[in-house]
Amino acid sequence: MPLKEMFEEKNLVGRYFILIVCLFASAIIFNIFLLPTNLVTGGINGVAVLFHHLFDFEPSMVIFVISLGMLILSVLFLGKEKTIGSVVATIVYPIFVSITAPIVVRFHVDTNELLLLSLIIGVLSGITNGLVYRVGFSNGGLNILNQILYQYFHISYSKSSFFINGIIVLLGGIYIGFNLVLYAIIVLYINSFVMDRVMLGISKNKAFYIVTQEDEKIKQFIIEELHHSATIFDVKGGFLEKKKRVVLTVVPTREYYKVQEAIKLLDKNAFFVASDAYQTEGGT
């Protein structure tokens, strides 16, 4: 069994519970805040809001169709293993959007307070998205495009996400109103800001220093399964003065969980330190 499958099976029930709760909360956020205000904040939710405004399409159907299309692309270009984490969100999230839609009737939102709403949407979305990534899952949807662009063209997640979301927000400004673009940008910024903090820390990357007897296995996992580089160097313990091997790697914060669980499975006696990496440059 591949290593990623092994640690993805750990605490599976609890992780799926968190995923389901976050998807349900995201659906409520969409129906109570995003749809009534016509805020096109990028991603699949932004596309659903845009299509609902222009063509009166049912948002849950738009989300499902696009998510399903992205899922097919993921299987074709990323493989089955990397697609598994997006399957649940693809199926469950549109259902939650549909069944929570009547909530809007009971909870009326004052759309005149857009600045306050933008802050609320950004914080709540950041919390839910951060928790989903923290337990090792993916929201699926247009995030799959980011993964494809990274794997085949080595375009970073941040750049591709900025470009894709930028196009969606710009289209929202053209067809709904440029006065809403500023609020959409506020939502995106706060969402990213809060999500980074929920996912362990304030930086976009984590630096791992791993003292282990299984340095080759850990290095192989990082390079072959996560597609990141790793450096191995010799050190000497300060107390017993024994020679040891240290694996140094820097990974996106979203993959912290994967590295942490891989270390536990490959070498239960390993000692590691993870810290924020505020700036990374160079390397191949």
Characteristics:
alpha+beta; 2 domains; 284 residues; Alpha-Beta Plaits; 12 helices; four-stranded antiparallel β-sheet
Q: Provide the succession of SSEs.
A: HHHHHHHHHHEHEEHE
Structural class: alpha+beta
The number of helical segments is: 12
Percent of sequence in beta strands: 5-15%
Query: Helical proportion?
Result: 55-70%
Which whole number gives the mean pLDDT?
A: 85
- Termini separation comes to 29 Å
Indicate how many domains the architecture comprises: 2
**Estimated radius of gyration:** 21 Å
- In spatial order, strands of the major sheet run 2-3-1-4
Query: What kind of sheet is the major sheet?
Result: 4 strands, antiparallel
> What ranges have pLDDT less than 50 throughout 5 or more consecutive residues?
none
Which word captures the global form? Answer: elongated
Task: Describe the model.
With 284 residues, this protein is of the alpha+beta class. It has two domains: 3-198, no CATH class; 205-277, Alpha-Beta Plaits (2-Layer Sandwich), CATH 3.30.70.120. The chain contains twelve helices and four strands, in the order ααααααααααβαββαβ. The protein has helices at residues 3-8, 12-37, 43-55, 59-77, 80-99, 103-106, 114-134, 143-153, 157-175, 181-198, 215-225, 256-266, and strands at 205-212, 231-236, 243-252, 271-277. The longest helix is centred in the first third of the chain and has 26 residues, at 12-37.
In short:
Helix content is 63%, strand content 11%. With 284 residues, the chain is an alpha+beta fold.
